[in-house]
Amino acid sequence: MKNVYITRTAHFLPNDPISNEDMENKLGLIDDKPSRARRIVLRNNGIKTRYYALDKDNNVTHNNAQITKEAIANLCDKDFKENDIELLSCGTSGPDNLLPSHAAMVHGLLDSKSIELNTAAGVCCSGVNALKYAYMAIKSDDKNNAVCTGSERSSSWMTSHKYIEEVKHLKNLEETPVIGFKKDFLRWMLSDGAGAFLLESEPKGECPLKIEWMKAYSYAYELETCMYAGGEKLEDGSIKPWTDYTPEEWLEQSIFSLKQDVKILDENIAIKGVESMKDAMTTYNLNVDDIDYFLPHLSSFYFGDRLYDEMIDKGIAIPKEKWFTNLRDVGNVGAASIYLIIDELRKSGKLKKGDKLLAAIPESGRFSYFYFLMTVC
């Protein structure tokens, strides 16, 4: 089996950074009233700026495929061109279309040839699932190179006009026209952007990262859905899909909006995260002292503190000085976040040969987790 190295990294963040104070101006007021949840959520998540694919007049500037294409373009130069890509593997929570696949839509924007495509669906783990497909293609000597991506354009899900019909419906029912916290919560959590990696079987270029191992976990067999879209959660915990609602109900209940069951999230995300991380470390005989940098994808610094406390309790606490995250400045970019973290750290000048980097990616969709270890070469 071949070794696999991340030999190039790149990212794309659309437009100028958006401050906390400007968020609601960009996303818009629902029923012309400020959100009651915004300040609480922002205080807890610790994010200061994020990026939206919206211009100064709040017009859309990029779709998801275009954001991804820009990250790939930033990966390429005269020595490695878009036409040199042999495999394109793309992960995202929110593709532009139900079909064709996200990877196909990205490929359609590239200066390319006929290549193999893979699209990974899901939430935050979709980006690293795309990475694993590329990793296996190189490791098995099926391809000489592979480009993988993680991307999101969450702003298009969260603008206020998406909730107009639901507000009207609530008023007609003589109910308070305020959307539920499960929807409002995510409006202040998510950001747009994309990251891209080039994988090869030789440690080329500056600061290549050897992928030592990758391991994934799912707890869907015991935990109900936590984050979802395109359906509604019923009292028994099941999800009624959008296809079982009428077109009128799609609008009246904002069926296609992003939603989060915050209670289930709070109860499980850190506990299952540490449970799975400890198992991965045991499986690969990895000790806390072996890790030079811990790269957690955090949706919120609130959950970072919960994660650290749980790590202490389970005897695998990685000192906070070894943690590296850019959550405060770029926001929670879902499937793209781990790409952005690795790209920034790799280009920071901090890494030295032999450093061990442990990446941890949680996904609250139905509680999935992914870990992988890299060595600086």
How would you characterize this protein structure?
By secondary structure, this protein is of the alpha+beta class. It folds into 2 domains: 5-207, 3-Layer(aba) Sandwich (Peroxisomal Thiolase, Chain A, domain 1); 212-376, Thiolase/Chalcone synthase (Peroxisomal Thiolase, Chain A, domain 1, 3-Layer(aba) Sandwich), CATH 3.40.47.10. The chain is 32% helix and 22% strand. The protein contains 13 helices and 15 strands. The protein has a 9-stranded mixed beta sheet, sandwiched between helices. A two-stranded antiparallel ribbon has the order 2-3. It has a two-stranded antiparallel sheet with strand order 9-12. The longest helix is centred in the C-terminal third of the chain and has 22 residues, at 262-283. The protein starts with a strand and ends with a strand.
